[in-house]
What we know:
The chain is α/β, with parallel strands linked by helices. It is 32% helix and 28% strand. It has a 6-stranded antiparallel beta sheet, sandwiched between helices. A 5-stranded parallel beta sheet has the order 3-2-1-4-5, sandwiched between helices. The longest helix is centred in the first third of the chain and has 20 residues, at 16-35. It is globular, with a radius of gyration of 19 Å.
Amino acid sequence: MKILVAEYALAAGLGGTYEIEGQAMLQVLAGSFERCGNEVIYPTSGPAIDSGQPVVLEGPEEFEGLLASTEADAGLVIAPDVVLPHFLEVLESSTVNLGCSPKAARLAGDKLECTRALEEAGVPVVPLAHWPEPPEKGCHLYVIKPRYGCGSQNMRVSSSPRTDQGYIATRHIRGSSLSASFVAGEDRFLPLTINRQLIDQKSFEYRGGQVPYHTPRAAEIWSVAEQAAEVLGLQGYAGIDLILGDRPRVVDVNPRPTTSIIGIARVMREELGDLILKARYGGLPSEVHVEGEWSFTKDDLG
């Protein structure tokens, strides 16, 4: 099978940590698909990885054209949440999409509507806050973050839930910052690992992770993650960020491969590429085998 792995940061030459993380994820996925006997192609602005065949783009605008014209048998797109749904629609016009549907990616990428959808379905979430909050709720801290956008960008803590246009406010919940990585098929949810996120407590910037993170509350976390995946209709590899306090509460949903795969590939016996293909075509196992532990920071990836 010929597989297109289209990682936007490297293809568009975004530079900085975006491109470093993107290239590291691309290397993991391309290598895994190849070890499973597949041919891999990937777009790039110039840099090459150790696996697959590069397709050099002259500029970011050629990324969409490659998705639309690919002759690959299947494709996987990794891109910022604000553009991912559109790119998935383009990909689906030409080949099989190995990731989430455009509809699921669009809902997951909208932090306001995603939180509302999960809350209405009874999934524990970090509660949204509104201005002005009723005084009987007392004094609280709030997290102000963009309604759209990846991860922990442009987040801050405030004593007020008042926000500018394009931002939302949530209650500030104390607890451990974790993520749950999984593969979802049409009829099966496959847990991979629970991961500890290394977060800068002042800037909220993601610094790295520990894979896996062992906790006696794993069953609680997986229950919430599976509920969220079902409500949002996630497919393929996805991840859910949570705060583990009084209960696991969903913070963000990532409808695409995340940096955690770099650690997962080092500790999981199964091949990520094989699991992603089985999520689409059938045959997902009931469990995976994880051995050891691996921690990394963004600086390690450079």
